[in-house]
C-alpha cells in the first residue's frame, strides 16, 4: 500500500509540472502576441481589463448580497420582520424629511414674497399718508382758495344724503326715490366720461365730466314674514322701500349705514354682497321717526344717530345695542359735528363751575364770614381752564393713517335743531347738554346746518334769514358776529369751515359762496380795521427800507 501511494504521488507531481510548463508557454505566446499587436489592440485589451474588473466588482457585490440573503434566511421570520421595520422607518423618515424640506423651501419663498409685498404696501400707504399731510398743510397755510366745478351728476330726484369712501374712491348718494346710488368718483373727476351736449347746456363751461354710475339698489325696510306681500308664485316678495335720509360709509367700503323713515337703521354690504342687509338697528328703545343723522367714530366701532323724535343715541357695531342716550334735546336734530383737535376751551369745567355756583348753600355760614361767597370769588377769579385731553391730543396726527380722515376730539360734539337751538354735548355727561347756544335777536327759529371752526373755539350756524352767526365758546350767551348774505339767496342750508380758519363755505338756494370771515370781522369792527391798516403800512415801510438799503 505504501508503494502504491508513492507511485500516485509521483504521477501527480509529474502532472503538476507539465501543467506549469504549459501555463508558462501559454503566457509566453500571449506576451509575444501583445508585443506584435498595434495600439488599437492595446486599447481593446485595456477595455477588456476594465470590463473584467467591473464584472469582478459585480460578482463581489452579488456575493455579498447572496451572503446577506443567506444570513437573513437563517434568521427566524419574526426577527426578519423586526429587522425590516427599521429599514422601512428609515426610508419613510428620509422621504418625510425631504418632503418637509421641500415644504419649508416653498413656505420660505411664500413668506419672502409676502414680506416683500407687505413692505411694498406699507411703503405705498406711507407715501399716500404723507401726500395727504402735505395737502392738509398746504390748505392750512393758504391765503385764498379758487374753486372750479369740473363734474356734474344729473339725477331725477332730490338728494338727501351723500357719503364718500377713503381716498375719494366712491361716492354714495341717497335720494327721495328710495335708491342708494354708487358712483366712481375718482374716475369721474379724471374725466373718464363726458357729459352730453344737452347736459352741458345749462352748466358752466368748466363742467365737462359726468358721473360714472356703477350700481344702485333699494333702501329696503326689513319686514316680518307675516307682513310680506308675496307674488303669485310665492317665490318673490314686494320690498318696502324708504327714502334715504342719511348715509354713512365705512372707510374701506365694507358696509354702509342708512337711515330709514320708520326710525330704523340698516347696515348694508358694499364690497361683499352689495345691497344686502347685514343688520337692522331698531330695538325697543330705538328711534320712532325719520333718522336723518349718522356719524361713525374714528375707530369705526360705534356711531351716533339723530332723529326727528328729538333723541340722540350711540350704538355699538359689535353688539348692535344702544350704548348711550343723550337726553334733554328740545328740538328735531338737523346736523351733528365733532369738535376739532387743539381746542383751548374746556366745556366740562365751565359746566361744573356753573353747577357748583347754583348748588351753593346759603344757610351754612362760618362765624368769620360766608365760605360760599369766598368759594364763588375764587371760582370767578380763576382763569378759563384748558382741556388737558386737548393738550394730550395735540401730539396726535391730524390725519388718521388707517382711514385717511381728519382726526377729531370725539369727547365733545355739537348738534343743531330745527327750532334754531344749538347744543354742545360732552360724552361724560349724557343727562343734559354741556352748553346751549341761543340765537341772536331778530333771528327766526331755524337752523339746518352748523359747524366748528378749525381751532374748535368758535361755532358757525346757518340761519333762515340769509345770515351766518358766529359764536365764541368763551362767551356762549350771545352771538359774536352776524354775517349777512344777499337776501335773494334764501336760507343757508349748509355751512363748512375751510382749513385756513379764515374762510367758510355757505350753501344757499341760489349758489355756494366762499366767505372771508377775517375781512368781515375787520369790516364790522372799525378799531380792528384801523389796526390792520397800520400793520400793513408798517410792513410796507419795512419792505421799502429793506429794498433801499440793499
From TrEMBL:
It comes from Saccharomyces cerevisiae x Saccharomyces kudriavzevii (strain VIN7). The lineage of its organism: Eukaryota, Fungi, Dikarya, Ascomycota, Saccharomycotina. Residues 66-88, 376-398 have a biased composition (Basic and acidic residues). It holds the Pfam family Beta-prop_SPT8. The keyword Nucleotide-binding does not apply. Residues 107-121 have a biased composition (Low complexity). The keyword DNA repair does not apply. InterPro entries: Beta-prop_SPT8, WD40/YVTN_repeat-like_dom_sf, WD40_repeat_dom_sf, WD40_rpt. Transmembrane segments: none annotated. Residues 1-122, 350-398 are annotated as: Disordered. SUPFAM superfamilies: WD40 repeat-like. Keywords: Repeat, WD repeat. This is Spt8p.
